[in-house]
Amino acid sequence: MRLTPLSALSLLSMAVGISLASTAQAARPPAPDLSNAEFQQCLDGLKNSSKFRGVDGFTFNNYRPSQPDPSVIQSLNYQPEFQKDVWDYLSALVDKERVEDGIRAKHQWGNTLRQIESRYGVKAEHVLGVWGVESNFGQTLGKKPLFESLATLSCFDRRQSYFQGEYANALKIVQNGDIAPSDMTGSWAGAFGQTQFMPSTFLELAVDFDGDGRRDLVNSVPDALASTANFLDKRGYRTGEPWGYEVKLPSGFWAASNRKDKKSISHWRNQGITLANGSPLPYDLSRAGLLLPAGLEGPAFLVGKNFDTFYSYNASENYALAIAHLSDLITREDSSKTDFVTAWPTDDPGISRQQAKDIQQALLNAGYDIGGVDGIIGDNTRTAIQQYQSSRGIFPADGRAGQKFYRTIIGNMAPSSSQYDNQYGQPANSQPLNPAPADRMGQLIQQQTTNPTTYSSQPSAQPSRSGNTRYRRVTGSDGVVKLVRIDEGL
Ligand code: CA
After folding, report:
1. How many whole angstroms separate alpha carbon 287 and alpha carbon 267?
2. For residues 355 and 413, which has the higher predicted lDDT (pLDDT)?
3. Is the pTM of this model over 0.70?
């Protein structure tokens, strides 16, 4: 959900479980020491200010925080030094798991989505794309108490005026009875619910689609999906148009990425551009702009107005591309190939969330204290990767979790199908994949770990005991061999 470019990335990272966090040296600034006396004085002032005119005294007092939350000021001023490459960003947001979840959601909510499509004119898969990227289909809503977050942001640091408006709006939502006060949790910046709307967007665009008289974007999937469709519709969505498509540029073509400079399809045809598979460009977009997320050497796209409506949800082209791509894969109902036709210009592509979990498990097994396994490459995991790299002379020791590091720490085995197994072969310039014989895998991992934990190299599906942890070798349907930790007692 777009609030401001400033907070959009941090908010998105919370919504989708992606960390845009820094390298080890670039930890968050310390939480500031906020005066509660100053905070309470500020709230007294807000209560009687014009911004809070629509909020009654009972509501204001009832949800008035007793303390500020310094962590939100920390988040407000967090400037990540580690910028994710577009391929890292997309590989986690549009992975096999999310496509499968999306296909399931499409069938589960088929009737609702058809009704929404006929009322708002927004394609079901486009709504699903937003839902999947914003809240992982309702699974990741954010846990920060909204009133504490917004009240703190209203009284300290930069942008107080903006957040005062959002704080007042959040109180109005509860006052209106749309959302239960206990459900008012979300991102540090105040976006909440399955659509991750800011309170002002909620008041403007949320709709009651299930007909119970409340606009409940937290608990009602129909309300959330219809509100998303309403948002896209109000931002200029064109019924029946695709968002755009991946294209192939002719050799020698030169242009800068400029999504906003929209031209007719005839214009692009005359430039020699085709669909990625070589077919002529269809005329189903009235006008389209060229999007080159990684320059001329990477995947290229022509995007229309509907792509811009995705962008308006959260001001980032990569974010909009994630929605677009996810929606296409859900339309095709094919989770086996999540790559674009043209490979990203890198020899070290990004990893899926499952691969991130595998890396975290391997780091834990190797004795690195990274907390738990959550599939999010955050500060702790990045620091551990950096230490792991440094201790083994891996250069650069940049803390990045890409396919190369995945292969290093998991063993020299084939990466998961979602990253490589497409009909167009491996990404350009990639290292040749050279899966080691299965019986070498345990040996490789053993060499690479620092603690004496050993792994089984026994035949498939035979549990083995080593230290306090047992592992089983499992060959997935995609042919990838993994070591799976078995809980004690199994
Ligand atoms: Ca409702």
Report:
1. 9
2. 355
3. yes
